[in-house]
Amino acid sequence: MDRRAELGEFLRSRRARRQPEDLGLTPVGGRRRVPGLRREELAQAAALSVDYYVRLEQGRLRNPSAEIVDAVAAALALDPTERRHLHNLARPGRPSGQVRTLLPAAFQTVLDNVHVPAAIYSRHGDILAWNPLAAALLIDFAALPPQERNMPRLVFLNDEVASRFVFWKRKARDLVSQLRMESGRTPGDEKLAALVGELSMRSAEFARMWATHHVREKTRGGHHYRHPVVGEFYLRYETFRPPDDPDIALVCQVADPGTPDDEALRLLASWSTQAPEGMTRAIARSGRSAADVCAGPEQPGH
């Protein structure tokens, strides 16, 4: 992915969302061939010369000031996440480093002592470590080849994982937006470019979502799950990043105490304890209820 091309596409996509009237401007010129602000109008709103703005949009400015980027962001009415993304693209910082693939043993110890679904992810969405509840919720990660343990790849290309999300498009859009945000933060990241290229080729829906240039930080939120044993329930998630290693994230999912969602999570925990991780998919596909599974094996004739 070329940073200059990304910058130009992002700014053009955001110009298309705004009209001269939104900024109190008189439209420039006659009939418009494309929707939104023209470069001249955005330059005027940001108090820049047209030539300077054109060079910014084309990525020909080596290091525009933060004030100039903020002025363009204000004229485009960017939200805080989009503003950070624009700064990442227009004023790139550190180059992408090595992607972490191994974690200290202490991380797995922490996961094993967290009594809710929890996993550790890389900045590309690679699932680096997980606890049994996380596997019971989604898929037996241990049974997958390491290169397939990636949430964007699983959500777009694995039917079993996709079926877990009641609102699949919402989950898919969040993942694409997070990858977009990461592409601006770490320009020149070859692994990320390869992942985006693969998903764009294999999933028309991914390619369509990628072209929207939506951006989002992974912080907190929630998902409605559809589990073949437990049924439908809702979990909230919180993201924690080590201050000395922001390239990885611990994501924990919780249910509100005393709710049906909390009861469903307790059933999932009980089921996952009874069913070894390597057996979870087979038991889930059997159609048995969580209560049946927790009660023990089926008896002949039942």
Automatic annotation (TrEMBL):
PANTHER family linked to this entry: BLL4672 PROTEIN, BLL4672 PROTEIN-RELATED
Q: What is the lineage of its organism?
A: Bacteria, Bacillati, Actinomycetota, Actinomycetes, Micromonosporales
Q: Which Pfam families match?
A: HTH_31, MLTR_LBD
- Keywords assigned by UniProt? DNA-binding
What is the recorded name of this protein? DNA-binding protein
Q: Which residues form the HTH cro/C1-type domain?
A: 36-83
Molecular function GO terms recorded: DNA binding
User: Which Gene3D superfamilies does this chain map to?
Assistant: 3.30.450.180, lambda repressor-like DNA-binding domains
